Amino acid sequence: xxxxxxxxxxxxxxxxxxxxxxxxxxxxxxxxxxxxxxxxxxxxxxxxxxxxxxxxxxxxxxxxxxxxxxxxxxxxxxxxxxxxxxxxxxxxxxxxxxxxxxxxxxxxxxxxxxxxxxxxxxxxxxxxxxxxxxxxxxxxxxxxxxxxxxxxxxxxxxxxxxxxxxxxxxxxxxxxxxxxxxxxxxxxxxxxxxxxxxxxxxxxxxxxxxxxxxxxxxxxxxxxxxxxxxx
Amino acid sequence: xxxxxxxxxxxxxxxxxxxxxxxxxxxxxxxxxxxxxxxxxxxxxxxxxxxxxxxxxxxxxxxxxxxxxxxxxxxxxxxxxxxxxxxxxxxxxxxxxxxxxxxxxxxxxxxxxxxxxxxxxxxxxxxxxxxxxxxxxxxxxxxxxxxxxxxxxxxxxxxxxxxxxxxxxxxxxxxxxxxxxxxxxxxxxxxxxxxxxxxxxxxxxxxxxxxxxxxxxxxxxxxxxxxxxxx
Amino acid sequence: xxxxxxxxxxxxxxxxxxxxxxxxxxxxxxxxxxxxxxxxxxxxxxxxxxxxxxxxxxxxxxxxxxxxxxxxxxxxxxxxxxxxxxxxxxxxxxxxxxxxxxxxxxxxxxxxxxxxxxxxxxxxxxxxxxxxxxxxxxxxxxxxxxxxxxxxxxxxxxxxxxxxxxxxxxxxxxxxxxxxxxxxxxxxxxxxxxxxxxxxxxxxxxxxxxxxxxxxxxxxxxxxxxxxxxx
Amino acid sequence: xxxxxxxxxxxxxxxxxxxxxxxxxxxxxxxxxxxxxxxxxxxxxxxxxxxxxxxxxxxxxxxxxxxxxxxxxxxxxxxxxxxxxxxxxxxxxxxxxxxxxxxxxxxxxxxxxxxxxxxxxxxxxxxxxxxxxxxxxxxxxxxxxxxxxxxxxxxxxxxxxxxxxxxxxxxxxxxxxxxxxxxxxxxxxxxxxxxxxxxxxxxxxxxxxxxxxxxxxxxxxxxxxxxxxxx
DNA sequence: AATGAATGAGTGTTCATTCAT
DNA sequence: GATGAATGAACACTCATTCAT
Lengths: 231, 231, 231, 231
Hints:
In chain A, 72% of the residues lie in helices and 0% in strands. By secondary structure, chain A is mainly α. In chain A, α4 runs antiparallel to α5 (95-108), α5 (95-108) packs antiparallel against α7 (130-158) and α6 packs across α7. At the A-B interface, α6, α7, α8, α10 and α11 of A face α5, α6, α7, α8 and α10 of B. Chain B binds a DNA duplex through α3.
């Protein structure tokens, strides 16, 4: 609609940027938007604008909208487990302190904004693209969980943790609970509706996690009776 | 296309008036579809067809699509907390056994298919209708959590639970973790990707929950001995 | 949806009113709404509600929505010209004073609210139901115009009006101009955008109307020259 | 259905990019349809088809349906008053001849079909889009009226027109009457129902207009008496 | 490599009209 | 007579996707 100047003098190409960076930029924009508005509510024009390109360019680099989501999930898949493993390797202390770090770094306090967003998108996959979600679970979550399970087993071996703790379930429930709570608190107004410190949520979750794995008090009649009653 | 009987007697109506059942049926159809395809992916025509009516009828009973969702959420809100309270009242045993039941009945094993679907929809609200989600959290989850917190506090009072357990966080993380895990397992193929028994998930979660609240082996020889024994 | 009491005691019929009045009431409601919201913007439910009945009842008495409009137009057609004739008959003064009254009573100051509304609807016919509009023109306006024309001709005969005035056009332009201006002023905010007294509009229009029919200054050189220039 | 040439050379595009012409064409199509069927009765698909594009394209260039109407009104607003002023400037004769031209050119004989349609749409705004109508009145009609008023005042100053003529009302009633009559004649079958020459309508209206402004016969007892009676 | 004009299949929603009761 | 449940044909508008340039 706007009339374009046709002056022959200045050729000045309307677009001129290194094609290498484009995909990255588009993906980054998509991530930002998916995380804040949700996948469905984000339009391709939104993404294009945020990436400083036009719709056509997005389609030049990515087959379609869902591909963007898939690519983002892949990024997460590729990095996430590696990070966790690095954390474990880099921290030769007792398993309890390794688990502490894994939970904190891997599931509660993302290293940077982009990893936080990635997590939001990740959980959203469940409703936005169930198939992708299944794949992501397989690629990432299950591997992360088994890493945690391994740590717990090691703890059992050293006597730090009780033998009868269900490591598989512990790994799953605590990580899921923590991630979902943090997610809800950050995206909805849950933080204001249900006010309390995010840090407390993380710290206490870790504490509960470790405590749930530790040997319990068995001595004394009271305790014994209680156990009997409860079963 | 359908051949009409031309008997003058029975004109055989093309549709029947069933004002009493329609809303229920429509709501049921919506629930089924929302749970399986997600709110956004579900069309009003889908709902109408599934309910055996036409689009217009859906709009005759419900102002718009979101109202359907809201109504479903309301149903849940109205019943959910009440059920939990009933469970507590109906079970005068020790808090640990009350908590066990609350977790199982309230968050893991829905009484019927429709309550299961309701739960699926509920979690989906987070991305489909953030505002409704926030309302739902406020109406239901927070109240459910505080009910659990109260039980835990009672357990602390009786010495059954340790004083330093963070009841607030425990209530939140365990319920969220349990619900989400069950949800994922049931909606995706997670059950096949990550094969293990749903029942084990529930039982172990409850066990971990209670264990995380119990007094730990801390100081003194007893603890030391125990640790040694257990390794 | 609301449960109806089925007590056999009080039969009390839900609807019980003289069938004679219904059509009138419905028509009155339709008129009110058409005039204030416009034909298109008025729904049948609006009308039914305003008439204190339900949609079905409206259809029991009138074939469809447009029929309501047609019936209203008919009412106007039936009464309008008769009124004008009555005005003329009831006022045996000079034609100028008859015309004054005809313009005022017939086109500017409706006897009651309902006649004002009728006028609004009437003009709206042009876009809402062109065919009805044509019929209305034929039934009413043309007859009203020729009544005015007759008066003008009588004035010409008595020498009160100039011979060369185009009675046909005068009747048409002044009535149309007056009606439309009053309509615009009353329905839009024209009254506030273009502030001046409605009464002045009516009075001055009548004055201009009569003046345009009166013999011009012919005597004297100045006037004669002016005429010559203009032709 | 259309047979596609399979020559590998010329893939023969299914549609052409004509960003420069599209908006114009769409607007033109909309104008044509709005004028003939009315704004409300015109579908966006109608417009798209008439413009040789698809619905999407219409929305690519115009935010929504009402915007099309608004844009058309703007065009009129922008040009209409300017034209009138040009007429006055370009015709340095006596005010009576200026008024003649203004009435004829500005309100009776549109320069081309498109301006005639614009006028039709304009009057229709009253019921289709009251708000736009109000704006249009403000932007255009009031300004046009005051231009006419100014001319009349000038005529009063030169003694060509009588001092007591209500210029404001004259400007309003004659223009409205003329426009509406022409509109009715052209859109309905009024022309055939109420047969007489359009040209006569215009000429006579102008004549009546000017005559209504001229000094009246005041000489003679008869006239004087009449005036007294009538007030 | 990049653009952005053009497409077209949906989608929610409205509402006059019908018809079982 | 009267109701109001149920219908179904539109309709405006959105947006992922395609493709001419």
